[in-house]
């Protein structure tokens, strides 16, 4: 066989190999989520306890099924992990994103060794970043993202505030400084570790705070905006078994219309219960 023919065969086989590799790559990619805007838009906030159930077993399927039950389009998650020892080296956010066929963002990077927060979205996440908040105890994070809901640019924030009075009040002030500078329409959701009355969690040596009142000066609590009483038992989110506190919230800017808000009281995939709000964007 001539050297010319050998060269041609080599090139041909290389092209076939390359095409096969490309086809294989395409086949292993998750399908593109359906990004057709729907109204109303379903928002969810859920502290997933690093994927552990109240009994201490990892059960990501229960988290996934809860999100599906809430029919949520955009989900803010707290106490998340991506490939850390504490979560059995499981990339929980990647797993959930693939299972739910959603876009995702997690912050901060695992290299920071901080329990982070995450965003899952049916709609494209145009850009996202994270902000490390001041702390005396455990580090806390706020993530900020632009989600493209059709022609609407929705600014979404997800946060998990600290337990101590000093940490959570300082962090709440920092969070609102960032949130207030963002364009409308916007959503702030997460675990705020504060009750609407400002009372600290039982067993936590702390002072009452005014976080709820301070945020309410700028954003609407979707729970009360939907017509619910401020702090009734059916609104309690912690603990998931026998809840007695409302510490998980979804807040929206005044230009967003709130249709409904409820707590999924049957969810047992975490030590928190998720909150779901349906809203109409301007």
Question: Can you characterise this structure?
Answer:
There is one protein chain. With 282 residues, the protein is an alpha+beta fold. It folds into two domains: 1-30; 37-280, Endonuclease/exonuclease/phosphatase (Deoxyribonuclease I, Chain A), CATH 3.60.10.10. The chain has six helices and twelve strands. The protein has helices at residues 3-28, 60-69, 92-100, 165-180, 211-216, 222-225, and strands spanning 41-47, 74-80, 103-107, 116-121, 125-133, 140-149, 152-160, 186-191, 220-221, 248-252, 257-263, 275-280. Helix 2 packs across helix 3 (92-100). The radius of gyration is 22 Å and the shape is globular. The termini are far apart.
What is the CATH topology classification name of the largest domain? Deoxyribonuclease I, Chain A
What best-fitting shape do the alpha-carbon axes yield?
A: globular
Strand element count:
12
The rounded distance between the terminal residues' Cα atoms is: 71 Å
Structural class: alpha+beta
| H/E element order | HEHEHEEEEEHEHEHEEE
Which architecture of the largest domain per CATH?
4-Layer Sandwich
**Discrete helix count:** 6
Task: Estimate what percentage of residues fall within beta strands.
Answer: 25-35%
**Rg result:** 22 Å
**What count of structural domains?**
2
Which residue ranges are poorly predicted, with pLDDT under 50 across at least 5 consecutive positions? 2-31
Largest sheet: 6 strands, mixed
Biggest sheet: strand arrangement: 3-4-2-1-12-11
DSSP helix fraction? 25-40%
CATH superfamily of the largest domain: Endonuclease/exonuclease/phosphatase
- CATH hierarchy, class of the largest domain: Alpha Beta
Query: What value does the average pLDDT take?
Result: 83
